[in-house]
Specification:
single chain, alpha/beta, Flavocytochrome C3, Chain A, domain 1, 4-stranded mixed β-sheet, 18 strands, about 15% strand, binds flavin-adenine dinucleotide, binds succinic acid
Length: about 550
């Protein structure tokens, strides 16, 4: 038997990024919380976030304007009430972060220490500009906002007696208790990195905060953790997912042989950086009157179009016309990183390409982070709340992480008194299988998955490309299933299994959308359908995307 005695918590959060840590800190005053991370705590997208948090703080800005910008970019699919909810709580989120001590950049140029989040402090923050926002409204910590947020929240969580932070613990599936026609989440099965044993962790409430799935693509700005684990686990547990076809490609990822995932923030275009072709000519105005500050779908498609038309590998981003001191102070992280690669951005252009960046779809939740499964919550990039529609506007993701985590904490507070002790999670079946001696099969499948998604399910799609992807993914799922039957469970394989399932959900959603909208552009269906509709997938309707996985647990 591989299970060791279960450990019990009030709330078990899978994921230690902005969403998971915020939820932990909001629940810890009244309950016992554990936060799991499959690698070290910082290994999520949050740590790498650059631009900042979109929030209405300027007296000339308004909630109505932020709502309209979000809706406009979302191309008819944003849920207005959710947008209004998140945007109207954005200032409260920043206030809370200030209270935690996040050192945001101020108008005076300095980064500040821990404060109370007073009105005066809020007004002192520097506001940056990003694409498709009609006002400066991005709160940031120079160009390393995610690192500042993560380090501050981790510190607060480490100080809290009610929070256990557990590294090297990979959640592999949800434990579900079924009785009297009720299905309830009662914990998580976890693969412990050190012992390689599978243990059941029991909890009254579980929250998935596992981030996105952009690692499905060969080129991505995301860290390795982005393998869609939460979406796959929730799907296997019977939860619906929505709008999985809307995969956001960030227009400006550094193009360099030694650095394939480094983002060049959109805030650089907000400070006047220009996109140029190899011959120095600008091209964005040919695609959109907003030029470099058009929404991401438009800028990424324009770059894709120009590089393919000219047979070039990349385009160039140029900020060298701004004073060198300004560039060094405003973008210290990017300046240093590029300098290390031999590019002085105060004098030279930066070679850039689009790369997979953000998963707009995910596990369906309401504003309290509640999912279809009783006692299961989901927060952050792993979710579909209705905020982003067919295309996320810059810097609304972090805002969503905080605001929805606040709502989830309130829901848990209201329900914790009535929650019965979790029933014991059934043991995970023994794992006496052999070690895989053939890792080349696994690494080959990783390459095949990510190349297939890049080539056939990328910025520009077509019916035949999507059909090819569907067939190849079915074969991959079969091979992965065989591997699982035979060999002992390892993290790499768990991630591959999850990401192949999530890629299949992406393709299935993309095939169902017979139009081009927002991030989903299909050469065979270039126009907009008369009615904007979400793509909602229910596990019960897609037995082939359940059978091989379910038989494992
Ligand atoms: P993450 O921060 O990705 O955290 C996920 C956590 O889950 C990690 O701890 C991971 O280890 C853990 N995990 C995953 N699977 C498992 C498992 N099976 N078991 C245990 N643990 C697991 N958005 C903005 O709004 N503004 C920005 O400026 C911005 N810049 C960005 C820059 C980059 C380079 C990237 C990649 C993204 C950026 N985004 C930005 C998007 C934003 O950072 C993310 O959407 C957000 O941080 C997601 O937070 P999260 O808490 O949902 O997930
Ligand atoms: C960036 O800094 O360009 C990323 C912002 C985001 O993804 O919202």
């Amino acid at each position: 038997m591989t299970s060791s005695p279960a450990r019990k918590f009030d709330l078990l959060i899978v994921g230690s990024g902005a969403a998971g840590l915020t939820l932990a800190l909001r629940v810890a005053p009244f309950a016992k919380v554990a936060v799991l991370s499959k690698a070290s705590l910082e290994q999520g997208a949050t740590f790498y976030a650059q631009g900042g948090i979109a929030a209405v703080l300027d007296e000339h800005d308004s909630i109505a304007s932020h709502v309209e910008d979000t809706m406009q970019v979302g191309a008819g699919l944003c849920h207005r009430r959710m947008v209004e909810h998140v945007v109207s709580h954005s200032a409260a989120a920043v206030e809370w972060l200030l209270g935690q001590g996040v050192p945001f950049s101020t108008k005076a140029g300095a980064q500040r220490g821990r404060g109370a989040g007073s009105e005066a402090e809020l007004r002192s923050l520097h506001l940056a500009q990003e694409g498709a926002h009609s006002h400066r409204r991005i709160i940031h910590a120079t160009d390393a906002t995610g690192k500042a947020i993560f380090q501050t929240l981790r510190q607060r969580a480490q100080e809290h007696a009610n929070i256990d932070l557990l590294e090297g613990q990979t959640a592999l599936d949800l434990a579900i208790h079924e009785a009297d026609g009720r299905r309830r989440c009662c914990g998580v099965y976890v693969l412990d990195d050190a012992s390689r044993k599978i243990v059941a962790l029991e909890a009254s409430f579980v929250a998935l905060a596992t981030g996105g799935a952009s690692k499905a693509y060969l080129f991505t700005t995301n860290p390795d953790s982005a393998s869609g684990d939460g979406i796959a686990m929730a799907w296997r547990a019977g939860c619906r997912v929505a709008n999985m076809e809307f995969n956001q490609f960030h227009p400006t990822c550094l193009f360099h042989p030694h650095e394939r995932s480094f983002l060049i923030t959109e805030a650089m275009r907000g400070e006047g950086a220009r996109l140029e072709l190899a011959d120095g000519s600008r091209f964005m105005e040919r695609f959109d009157p907003r030029g470099e500050l058009a929404s991401r779908d438009i800028v990424a498609r324009a770059i894709d179009h120009e590089t393919k038309r000219l047979g070039e590998d990349c385009v160039y981003l140029d900020i060298s016309h701004r004073p060198a001191n300004f560039v060094r102070e405003r973008f210290p992280n990017i300046h240093q990183r590029c300098l290390g690669l031999g590019i002085d951005i105060t004098r030279e252009r930066i070679p850039v390409v689009p790369a997979a960046h953000y998963t707009c779809g995910g596990v369906i939740i309401n504003r309290a982070g509640e999912t279809d499964l009783e006692n299961l919550y989901a927060v952050g990039e792993t979710t579909f709340s209705g905020l982003h529609g067919a295309n996320r506007i810059a810097s609304n993701s972090l805002t969503e992480c905080f605001v929805i985590a606040f709502g989830a904490a309130e829901s848990i507070r209201a329900r914790i008194g009535e929650a019965a002790a979790p029933p014991p999670a059934p043991d995970w079946p023994g794992d006496a299988r052999a070690e895989s001696g053939d890792d080349i099969l696994v690494s080959h499948n990783w390459d095949e998955l990510r190349r297939c998604m890049w080539d056939y399910v990328g910025i520009v799609r077509s019916d035949s490309r999507l059909g090819r992807a569907e067939r190849r993914l079915a074969l991959l799922r079969e091979e992965i299933h065989e591997h699982f039957q035979r060999y002992r469970i390892a993290r790499d394989m768990l991630e591959l299994r999850n990401l192949t399932l999530v890629a299949s959900l992406i393709v299935r959603s993309a095939r169902a959308r017979k139009e081009s909208r927002g991030l989903h552009f299909n050469l065979d269906h270039r126009g907009l359908a008369p009615q904007a509709r979400d793509t909602i997938l229910r596990p019960a309707d897609h037995a082939d995307l359940l059978a091989d996985d379910q038989s494992l647990s």
